[in-house]
From TrEMBL, chain A:
Pathway: Polyol metabolism; glycerol degradation via glycerol kinase pathway; glycerone phosphate from sn-glycerol 3-phosphate (anaerobic route): step 1/1. Residues 552-579 have a biased composition (Low complexity). Its EC number is 1.1.5.3. Its main location: membrane. It is found in: Cell membrane. It comes from Halorubrum vacuolatum. This is glycerol-3-phosphate dehydrogenase. Residues 6-364 form the FAD dependent oxidoreductase domain. The lineage of its organism: Archaea, Methanobacteriati, Methanobacteriota, Stenosarchaea group, Halobacteria. Residues 552-591 are annotated as: Disordered. Belongs to the FAD-dependent glycerol-3-phosphate dehydrogenase family. It comes from the Archaea.
TrEMBL record, chain B:
Residues 1-85 are annotated as: Disordered. One of its GO terms (cellular component) is glycerol-3-phosphate dehydrogenase (FAD) complex. Keywords: 4Fe-4S, Iron, Iron-sulfur, Metal-binding, Repeat. Residues 47-56 have a biased composition (Acidic residues). Residues 94-125, 141-174 form the 4Fe-4S ferredoxin-type domain. It comes from Halorubrum vacuolatum. GO terms for molecular function: 4 iron, 4 sulfur cluster binding; metal ion binding; oxidoreductase activity. This is Glycerol 3-phosphate dehydrogenase (Quinone) subunit C.
Length: 591, 503
């Protein structure tokens, strides 16, 4: 299969999604290819801070100005992805007064609204702040949901004729006559929605221009095209707390440092972060000390964090770019600005541009500038309107009413649904009966789940990202199977099983870094419930091999059984573990 | 918080208030209450009419203040001691933020499976949702509490069921308070009705001045019909009769305590019901404790707050708590422990008080409170005392353990105390909930739920050998009587009969 488009955008992070929306709205025929889900890369593994610019007000005023500008734009065009939490830079006694003043001046110089409040007032607003916090600068930080944001951008692009392909990895960049003419992609399960167990396919997609928006992977894509893109990936840890200890973004007011921010996000709080250069954006160590550091250091600001329950930790890699020859040693010194690398100018390879660096907050601005650049290359003229036109879901907030009574859902559940769905709430909640609530921790209704399945196929991680289902304190222990059950309306049983396993595994992955105290108890309860009620520690249906039914009832003569022991005990064992063939070891709940 | 000093107005109020003792000037006799203060009808002054001094006019403020978490027992709530400071103390006007309570929940659903309301009412989402889930989903400026919170009867079985000590009833109480404060139409019939039911004590105090008339009036044909139509109080139940003489007036008449003993003192928290409706329980308490050589004090007191918590009337509850705590702290100062004959009263003083309010000394009150039988089982050799006792005639009881007794670990005490007594047959009718939960079963829209919950208990009572019911809780007693027609006794009454007390 082959197709000629105007532009291929590689990478479904905030940058790629922003670019594809922009170009599609300008009327170009655009294709987005992403190897995983949307936000599979760094965008799905970040803090969710909608920067006010305050964090850069001292070190990088250009970035700071861009942040506040885009911060205001996103509140307008992406209302359903943004929570206007406000933020504070708090000063502890040991933090420098001089820096506090610099920060304040910096904010003012960059037109970031900033107000100084004393410690008492800060604690009135955020009662869990430490008692010795002396004062704070209040800035308009916010929280942004990166997934909702990317999905909305992609949806708008699709409405304007773009093709969006997820689970489609670029395996080669096609070059003809010294010019990039397209890419080769491998579809995980064929083009379109991802459905487990469908065979993969390969496709060549041809286009007049290719945009490399693969962030930390930009070097790899560059390699495929034979050019050097010097991205220095740098990892950062984020730790998710079970509840919101604060409702405002809390930053430590001191020069760059690890563990200096708490972002309230939906029902949780996210602590961050570190900055450590790594070799490979996909293969780097996830270390315990990093998590410990978050909790310990940040409990200087919010003491309650010390005893609070942690749900999981995850890591993201920053796509930091360093122009050749800069030679910076410390990753935190690398600029947070973004760079547009025109490979025609740079490497004599026309037809492709890479964009690296930057922040999620300024994704739209980056997308605008790269779209301008692409249009120039294609000698195409069109205006950018992405700063004015709201994203799907954020168009009309007057439709947000009291959903609870209308759809018979409980008040906090209705609120959360409406906040996630924005102006789509009506359609979604009226499509299927919203009750019963499928994910109790996050208050996700059945209607929301089936709507997400309609968009995402059997990919339950994509459903999770759309709805937050399985992201609460049980981490999927009580709801993965319920969510999977919703799939059975459309998909055969083996697909449902694979989908369920995949989601459960994904949830387990992050929880591994929170296995002490209450989350450990939770994990044990989950494990036992799944083992004892669903036989998931040895479910014959989960094995590819046939079931050895003889093992259920080996009878008193089964003395030569490899596990040894007396015959009675053997048959008991066989029955208890569901007749698992003995050579099929290593199956337990931690798969 | 009330801005009243009720003490100043006592003398006048006494006279109006307490006909049988008007003009009586006492030398304080041990255990004889200061007249009147506790029985003024001042308790139904609507909140709106009160000077809101403490809150600086913040109309959103609820009555709770995070309860006591500090090591000092909340005794320096006025000046926060930085070393014992706890974040929940600083919410202005007292809103509690219980989101962190959700940290302990494993979603195991034990609470839901033990909830008697959820068992019979499909619309009720259950304690897990009402508590940890709702609080976790809530945000600071997001004050919507789901209306289903009013369907919780506050039986507190969920507290008991939770393996992880999630403060469920505290979460429910706070949520109910916020719901009532902010979301319930203040002039709605439901609000007025709940306010009246939860301030039962006030009406009871008036009715007991003219008990015969009150009994007559509430039993007039049509009286209950009228209550149902105008207030939404169910017409299926009969109002409990008022005693012709309140416990307190009996106590005064008898000249207060008959035993003086500075080493063994107890302060009796009789609660509303045994004062106004079943003074025989209070009298039995006095006889039993005096038999064991205790000096009984009867401090001035107001409602324990149980019905108010259950109706989200936290401001009312707080006002009453202030008086109670002050008086009970004084009694503790005189060396007394606090004894209640109603398990909901002891529950309230023990658990709900320090969870919801931070009042000087409230933790002390909590630590010194006991249920009457519990206390005797701890400090006296009841078994020995009952070893030779013999009742005049053989008696058989169908005993129901109130949910609130269960919460205090007292569900077996009556059976264990009496099963070996000669001439007594006592049978536990099972661990189901009676279904009335105080004022809950009085509400028209809850009546059916209440009776459905009670069904199991009624059935078991009928199967039991005895045809006299027994329970520690006055409202459970109402329900038992209503469902079976049995006469109901309090364990203290049987104890008074079984002990060799010269009447
Ligand atoms: C720890 C951390 C915290 C952060 N916090 C914030 C914050 O609070 N606020 C903020 O504004 N910014 C924050 N950032 C920065 C922000 O997350 C990133 O700048 C932004 O998400 C980058 O988006 P992107 O689209 O450029 O890259 P990515 O999101 O990484 O997108 C690249 C995509 O390309 C895909 N891809 C790679 N190779 C291929 C291939 N061969 N074929 C197809 N697809 C491919 C990847 O799967 C990936 O999805 C943070 C970054 C980190 C690391
Ligand atoms: S207090 Fe009783 S009625 Fe209320 S939720 Fe708990 S168990 Fe259910
Ligand atoms: S019993 Fe306790 S831990 Fe279990 S679901 Fe209920 S509140 Fe949570």
């Amino acid at each position: 299969m082959s197709e000629q488009a105007d532009v291929i955008v590689v990478g479904g992070g905030s940058t790629g999604c922003g670019v594809v929306r922009d170009l599609a709205r300008r009327g170009l025929d655009t294709v987005l290819v992403e190897k995983g889900n949307l936000t599979h890369g760094t965008t799905g593994r970040m803090h969710g801070l909608l920067h006010s610019g305050g964090r850069y007000a001292v070190s990088d005023r250009k970035s700071a100005r861009e942040c506040i500008e885009e911060n205001l734009v996103l509140r307008d065009i992406a209302g359903h992805c943004v929570e206007e939490t406000g933020g504070m830079f708090v000063k502890r006694p040991e933090d420098s007064e001089e820096y506090f003043q610099e920060k304040l001046e910096g904010c003012r110089a960059c037109d970031i609204p900033a107000e100084v409040i004393d410690g008492e007032e800060a604690r009135r607003r955020e009662p869990y702040l430490a008692r010795d916090v002396e004062k704070a600068i209040v800035v308009p930080d916010g929280a942004v949901d990166p997934f909702r944001l990317c999905v909305a951008n992609a949806a708008d692009a699709r409405e304007h004729g773009a093709r969006i392909e997820t689970h489609a990895e670029v395996t080669d960049v096609l070059i003809e006559d010294g010019e990039v003419v397209g890419v080769e992609v491998e579809h995980d399960t064929g083009p379109g929605k991802r459905v487990h167990r469908e065979p993969g396919t390969t496709e060549e997609i041809r286009a007049r221009y290719v945009v490399n928006a693969t962030g930390a992977w930009a070097g790899q894509l560059g390699e495929m095209a034979g050019v050097d893109v010097e991205v220095r990936p740098s990892k950062g840890v984020m730790t998710v707390m079970n509840v919101r200890q604060v409702d405002t973004v809390i930053n430590r007011c001191r020069p760059k440092g690890d563990a200096d921010i708490v972002v309230p996000h939906e029902t949780a709080c996210i602590l961050g972060t570190t900055d450590e250069e790594v070799e490979d954006p996909e293969d780097y160590p996830e270390e315990e000390w990093e998590v410990d550091l978050m909790i310990e250091t940040l409990s200087e600001l919010v003491p309650a964090l010390k005893d609070a329950r942690t749900l999981r930790s995850f890591w993201g890699v920053r796509p930091l770019y360093e122009p050749p020859g800069t030679g910076t040693d410390d990753p935190t010194d690398i600029t947070r600005d973004y760079f547009l690398l025109d490979h025609d100018e740079r490497d004599d390879l026309p037809g492709m541009t890479s964009i690296v660096g930057g922040k999620l907050t300024t994704y739209r601005m980056m997308a605008e500038s790269i779209s301008d650049h692409v249009c120039e290359k294609l000698e195409y003229e069109a205006e950018c309107d992405t700063a004015e036109v709201p994203l799907p879901g954020s168009e009309d907030f007057s439709v947000l009413r009291e959903y609870m009574e209308e759809f018979g859902i409980r008040s906090p559940v209705g609120r959360r649904s409406a906040q996630r769905l924005g102006s789509k709430t009506d359609d979604v909640l009226s499509s299927v009966s919203p009750n019963p609530v499928v994910c109790e921790c996050e208050g996700v209704t059945r209607a929301e789940i089936s709507h997400a399945i309609g968009e995402a196929g059997s990919d339950l991680n994509a459903v999770r990202l759309r709805t937050r289902a399985s992201m609460g304190n049980c981490q999927g222990g009580f709801c993965t199977h319920r969510i999977a059950a919703e799939l059975t309306q459309e998909y055969p049983e083996p697909v449902v099983r694979d989908a369920e396993d995949e989601l459960y595994q994904e949830r387990w992955k992050g929880q591994r870094h929170a296995l002490w105290g209450r989350q450990l108890s939770q994990a044990m309860l989950n494990h036992l419930l799944h083992a004892t009620t669903m036989n998931r520690d040895g479910d014959p249906a989960g094995l590819d091999a046939g079931v050895d039914f003889a093992a259920f009832d080996a009878g008193p003569d089964a003395a030569d059984d490899p596990t040894g022991g007396d015959a009675g005990a053997d048959s008991g064992t066989a029955a208890a573990d569901g007749g698992r063939p003995f050579d099929e070891g290593g199956i337990d709940g931690d798969r | 918080m009330t801005g009243h000093d009720e003490r100043d107005t006592t003398t006048d109020a006494d006279r109006i208030d307490d006909g049988d003792n008007a003009g009586d000037v006492h030398e304080p006799h041990p255990g004889v209450p200061t007249l009147g203060r506790d029985e003024q009808p001042s308790i139904f002054v609507p909140d709106d009419g009160e000077p809101e001094v403490a809150d600086g006019g913040d109309e959103r403020s609820a009555a709770t203040d995070g309860g006591v978490k500090s090591a000092t027992g909340g005794s320096d709530s006025a000046e926060l001691d930085p070393t014992t400071y706890d974040p929940v103390d600083v919410f202005p006007g007292g809103d509690l933020d219980l989101r962190d309570g959700a940290d302990s929940c494993y979603k195991c659903t034990s609470c839901d499976t033990s909830c008697p309301v959820a068992a019979v009412d499909d619309e009720f989402p259950g304690p897990k949702f009402q508590g940890p889930e709702q609080w976790r989903l809530k945000r600071k400026d997001d004050h919507d509490i789901d209306a289903s919170i009013t369907s919780c009867s506050n039986c507190m079985r969920c507290d008991d069921a939770c393996p992880s000590s999630v403060p469920l009833s505290q979460m429910h109480n706070e949520a109910r308070g916020q719901f009532v404060e902010r979301q319930m139409e203040k002039l709605s019939r439901e609000y007025v009705r709940n306010r009246i039911l939860s301030n039962y004590r006030f009406f009871a105090s008036i009715a007991s001045k003219v008990p015969r008339l009150a009994n007559f009036a509430t039993n007039l044909p049509g009286a209950m019909w009228l209550a149902e139509k105008t207030l939404g109080v169910t017409g299926e139940r009969e109002f409990p009769p008022f005693a012709t003489q309140t416990f307190r007036s009996w106590w005064r008449e008898r000249g207060g305590a008959q035993v003086e003993n500075p080493d063994k003192r107890v302060a009796y928290f009789h609660g509303c019901y045994s004062n106004y409706n079943t003074p025989e329980v209070g009298k039995a308490m006095v006889r039993v404790f005096e038999h064991f050589g205790y000096e009984v004090l009867v401090p001035p007191q107001k409602c324990s707050g149980t019905p108010m918590f259950a109706n989200g009337m936290l401001k009312d509850a707080r006002r009453h708590a202030e008086t109670n705590v002050e008086e009970l702290v004084a009694a503790i100062g005189e060396g007394a422990d606090i004894i209640a004959s109603c398990t909901s009263c002891s529950m309230s003083l023990r658990q709900e008080y320090p969870e919801l309010f931070d009042i000087h000394g409230i933790e002390d009150v909590s630590n010194h409170t006991f249920e009457a039988l519990e206390y005797l089982r701890i400090y006296e050799d009841l078994e020995g005392a009952l070893a030779d006792s013999e009742l005049d005639e053989e008696r058989a009881f169908a005993y129901h353990a109130p949910c609130h007794a269960r919460n205090q670990g007292l569900e077996r005490q009556a059976v264990e105390t009496f099963r070996d007594v000669d001439g007594v047959v006592i049978e536990d009718v099972g661990d189901s909930c009676s279904g009335i939960s105080g004022t809950y079963g009085w509400k028209k829209e809850k009546y059916e739920t209440s009776m459905k919950i009670g069904e199991e208990m009624f059935e078991h009572m009928e199967h039991a050998e005895g045809d006299v019911g027994m329970t520690e809780c006055p409202t459970c007693a109402m329900q038992m009587e209503h469902g079976t027609g049995y006469e109901i006794e309090h364990p203290l009454q049987l104890l008074a009969d079984a002990l060799p007390i010269d009447a």
